[in-house]
Structures are given as C-alpha cells and as structure tokens.
Amino acid sequence: MLGLGVGFYKIGGNEYIAWEPTELGDKLIAWYKYNTGITTTTVGDVTTAITAWADQSGNSNNLTPSATDDTDVMPHQHADGSVFFQQSGDTLEFGTGLTLGKFAVYCRVKSSNFNDVLLEKSNDSEFIKFQTTTEFRIQPVSGTRHDMAIPGGAGLANATKFTAGFERDGDGDFFASANGSSSTTSANTAISNTLDLDRLGAPAQTMNVYELIICNDGLSSLERADINSYLNNI
After folding, report:
1. Would the pTM of this model clear 0.70, i.e. be above it?
2. H or E stretch including 222?
3. 87 vs 164, residue with greater confidence
4. Is residue 24 classed as helix, strand or coil in its secondary structure?
5. CB of 138 within 8 A of CB of 195?
6. Which of 135, 119, 132, 127 is nearest to 214 (CA)?
7. 2-10 long-range contacts, Cβ below 8 Å, gap at least 24?
8. What is the rounded distance in angstroms from the CA atom of residue 50 to the CA atom of residue 206?
C-alpha cells in the first residue's frame, strides 16, 4: 500500500486506513494485540485470570499460562485492557518457542519499578529485559549480555506507559529504543548465536503489557516510525 505519512495508508479514492502490524508483511511472526484475543476465567476470587492471548499475525502462536487453575502463575487482564503480570511467577508461554537471529521486538508496556524481564527462555539463560529507566538488556544464546544505554530524552518513569523496541540487524548488532530514542549499537555477535525465547513475563516488579509485536528481521526507518506511532496511540 502507498504510505501517506506515519500511521495512515490510502486504499482507494479518499478512503484511508490506520496502519497495523500486518503492513510488515512476512517479517511479522507474532502479534499480541491490545485488548484483543484475550480469554479469561474465574479462579477463586479472581474473575479475569488469563487462559490465552491469541496471536493476531495469522501464525497461531498463542500465549497461554503454565497452569489454568493457579493465580500464582496466571497474569490477569487489567481494567485498562492490558495483560497484568503481578509477580515473577506470572508468565504466558508461546505455543511454539521463538528462535531469532535477525529480529525486531516492539511493545507498549508499563513497569512499576523496572528491573523487569519482558521475554525469556524458561531457564533464564536468554532474555530481553528493561533493567532500569536508562538501560535495557539483551542476552542471546552465546551468554554474552548486551547492556544498552537508553537516552535520558526517552523520558522513562515508573508506572508510566512507554513504547520499547529491540532489534538485531543482519550484521549481528543489537540496539534498543524507548519512546523513539535509540541506544547506540552493541557489539557484533554472529547471527548463529540466536535469541531463544519461550515465554512472556516473569517480572521482578509488576508489569502491564498492552501490545507485543515480534518480527524475524530488522525494520526499515519508515517501518520503525510506523510501529512507534501505532504503539504510542495505545
């Protein structure tokens, strides 16, 4: 489709549609949309315990908790429509684990006090993490942790929604971004050293995830602008 500025595309005549992650084409491998495809159940006195968050990419890689009768491991659907992780035991697991060489992971989230894992392998050896308001981390299978400084201009703060991105290009370089402000790239690491991820969640603090978009390639500057604009509106 023909892009007409960030966030809107012309489909014919004077008709326009808002940008959505499906515009990323074959790069898009998983999409967990805000307040969409979330199935809940009642467990004890909790009426919004999540049993599934359906993948909207068309790949059917749905997220489910490790148990459907235990609120100690089940995130809840928050009143604001987000998926609310209350403790480190709260996770949602991919139906099919992800093995990422090149990638782009973007999300809209809120953290009560940072130090939170966003995505990880279940043995904790590989992860994507919001370490602090000024540092994000990626650790792939090589075991080498990549610490990426987030510019102060990103304006991150506790208990405040933000848009975050993590990318790895074809040269193996990593970088992160927050609210459109990017870190510098971090040390080239061979693409064969993949990032293997089994689940979403396991935060050290409480964390709300509003939307999560996962691609198996890096983004162009235009795609990056579109995805940031889209997530910023949630």
Report:
1. yes
2. helix 221-232
3. 164
4. helix
5. yes
6. 119
7. 3/222, 3/226, 6/225, 6/226, 6/229, 7/226, 7/229, 7/230, 7/233
8. 16
